[in-house]
Amino acid sequence: MSRRSLPTLDAATAPAGLCATCGYREPCGGLDEPSLFGCFVDCGGACARAAGGRCDYTCPKRPAQFARRWAEVGGLPIAYPAAPLVGPVSDLPRYVPFIRHGSRREMTLELKHVAVPTFELVSGAGRQYGPRARDGRDLRRRLVLRPDAQVLFVSVARDPEIERYWAHATELNLPERLAALGLWGMTAPNFSFFDDMPRTQILYNTARIVRATEALSKAGVPSVLHLNALTKADLRFWVSLLRDHPQMVYVAKEFQTGARSDRVRAERMIDGLEFIQARVPQELRPIVIGGTQYTRRLVSSFPRATFIDSRPFMNAVNRQRFVFDAAGARWEKCPTAPDEPIDDLLASNIAAYSRYVAALGNGAIDDAAAACVEASDESLTEDE
């Protein structure tokens, strides 16, 4: 598919200030708010520290690195995939739990669908970096899953882990090796979008999301685009890409970092998803990572949304039981004997939490109650 302009239907109004005369205005689309000095002023402090090697943004002030990075992703403006992307096609339930490892468990987890943090199973140093499982059978054995479990790898992680994947993906044939695991699907790495980054870094990270999805698709791994966006221009890019690939119905959105406790930011992210949905032909099925408290809001616009978090798993590890009954939803202490496996506790947590998320989606629980459940176990969960 050829490169082309974004749809004129949603064209942005040219902003005031330096954005209007910036050489990267056309591929970037500019900032939503008028800016006298443009995006590069926000990272001026990092630029001043560059002599100490502390700035690694994709910026024209570092021309050799700037050229090299754009060469590795196919140039600027962002190149569209050369072939149709391959996405998952079968249905997901309303809630899918994260299963982080197989420790403290003895019995097979009888679930059809599970999610796994990609970088719990893809790790290593140097040329040893790659999937820790040899094949699909070994993967499910390590996680104590049923042989036919449908596994979704979720590639949300801290920047160093994502950068390590990007650095090794081509050289070590990671997409092809991941294909051997027989995954239901894998989300593209969520390369960071920060307000104080220059827009050229945002464009580079957008391109990397596209290239990573393209490489996984080419290797036969059903892939899920991670729709990071800061501006209307970013949203229009995803609209254009999804119009070209109507087979891509699953998209990923992560709420567990800044939006977990910031309702305004979360609402803005949901508005962005709705903006995209209103402009593409396919019914989108968002895979929502860490945004369970926004279930009712999201389900009202996306009836087939799926929610993923690690609470039932991590709280079972921390000997906490989730109770959802006529008295409400809550976490309770559940001590176990030394070395006692957590199989029953984990199964109980997942079953009760799945019913709870379904009730959130049906409007049976209000947002205040959901926020209380979110806050009550915050100290027990690991950073995801």
Summarize the structure.
The protein is an alpha/beta fold and 384 residues long.
Written account of the structure:
It is a single chain. The protein has 384 residues and is α/β, with parallel strands linked by helices. It is 36% helix and 13% strand. The protein has 14 helices and 12 strands. The chain has an 8-stranded parallel β-sheet with strand order 1-10-9-8-7-6-5-2. Strands 3-4 form a two-stranded antiparallel sheet. A hairpin with a 2-residue loop joins strand 11 and strand 12. Helix 9 runs parallel beside helix 10 and helix 12 packs antiparallel against helix 13.
How much of the sequence is in beta strands?
A: 5-15%
- Total helical segments: 14
| Shape, principal axes of CA atoms | globular
- Category from helices, strands and their pairing: alpha/beta
What is the averaged pLDDT score?
Answer: 89
Poorly predicted regions are: 1-9, 377-384
Number of strands: 12
List the main descriptive attributes of the protein structure presented here.
384 residues, disordered N terminus, 14 helices, two-stranded antiparallel sheet, single chain, disordered C terminus, eight-stranded parallel sheet, alpha/beta
List the helices and strands and how they pair.
Layout: H1 25-28, H2 44-48, H3 63-72, E1 95-97, E2 113-117, H4 118-121, E3 122-123, E4 130-131, H5 136-142, E5 150-154, H6 159-168, H7 174-179, E6 185-187, H8 199-219, E7 223-226, H9 232-244, E8 250-254, H10 263-277, E9 285-289, H11 295-301, E10 306-309, H12 311-317, E11 320-325, E12 328-333, H13 343-361, H14 367-376
Parallel strand pairs: 1-10, 2-5, 5-6, 6-7, 7-8, 8-9, 9-10
Antiparallel strand pairs: 3-4, 11-12
Helix pairs in contact: 9-10, 12-13
